């Protein structure tokens, strides 16, 4: 069925992950396109690939890290120790942002990746380790720190003066000063 | 279940039963055994603070899915649908040009018994046969020379029992520093334990115009695998093969020299070749690991 386009069934999931990782839709689709092109360039490896998903998402991970290093994305990778004020949107701008998206963007990139692979892909920790090329202990510590940090950021958002809404009320908006 | 009723807080806790932080995440992500899951569930029933934390993690997952799952239902943008398709014959032709030329120009396996047999494996499921149009190209690409030199170096040094390497893995830092200095570029020795290979060490070898680095690995059975790294292939090799127009390197390529299989590729200024008397699946896995580690920051 996908003889001619064996990568096509992966595109929606690669896009979902890319959209959660990258700053904009354009960046996300660029990232998916680059991933597909690189996967084709490395097609000689397919027969040796045990887990195609880990392989494809691993390619995307590498490309994403490259871009972060080159500063091509608007997202700012921050260290867990970075004070939050330092990465908050500019003080003089009033930006309406989605709580969760904004909180996610404020996570260090490495924590965000692990969190998203767990949440969106339901990946096992071992598969995540393989995808990102890191030890499983590192997966766990990033997951743990990422979840706690996200919880803190969301709690902070929930107590912000604007944008209070009931739980599970769909997308929530708030004003970040 | 026969679990006895537990008194209200603070409940007695069997320390052996208290879940670790890792297990709490495993609980949320349904990665515990059913038995352990039940135990953690029972433990959480009397730990409101922990239960709240766990519930918050669950809610994060739900909300992330709610936020990004709609992307799954969007139609695939045409550009991405195109990129998901097998590249057009012309592009593939360019990718395999190097291999095809090597076949057309005969082999140079003078040092090894049998001939070097470059094989096109660029296309998944593609035939291991060169495109006759590309075979008419005039020059022998530098990256095939490079891969052959790697195969020769592998054949020469891997039988060594006493001095397979100049600097052994116990001095990996020195090895890497030395090779980096001589190569004029930062080297690193990839870690291939996950693929079943331990680093033995490395040596410096003469390449066509300058030094090349050879890292040697061995598996549990003592079979050796070498990684051959050159930074002199830049421009010349990639450009000559026509494979890198507009890109930073070639796809993965494969070459067989007698019993030695070689997987090689050009990436930026570097050429990498992995040689072993192992099947292609093994080499592909190792190549993938090396490639990732070289790309990693």
General description of the model:
The complex is a heterodimer of chains A (about 180) and B (about 300). Chain A is built from seven helices and two strands. Chain A has helices at about 10-20, 25-40, 50-70, 100-105, 110-120, 125-130, 135-160; strands at about 95-100, 175. Chain A is mainly alpha-helical and about 180 residues long. Chain A has a two-stranded antiparallel sheet. With about 300 residues, chain B is α+β, with helices and mostly antiparallel strands. An eight-stranded antiparallel sheet of chain B has the order 1-6-7-8-5-4-3-2, sandwiched between helices. Chain B has eleven helices and eight strands. Chain B starts with 20 loop residues before the first helix and ends with a helix. Chain B has helices at about 20-30, 35-45, 50-70, 70-75, 80-85, 90-105, 130-135, 140-155, 170-185, 235-240, 280-295; strands at about 115-120, 165-170, 200-205, 210-220, 225-230, 255, 260-265, 270-275. The interface between A and B is large, with 59 and 60 residues.
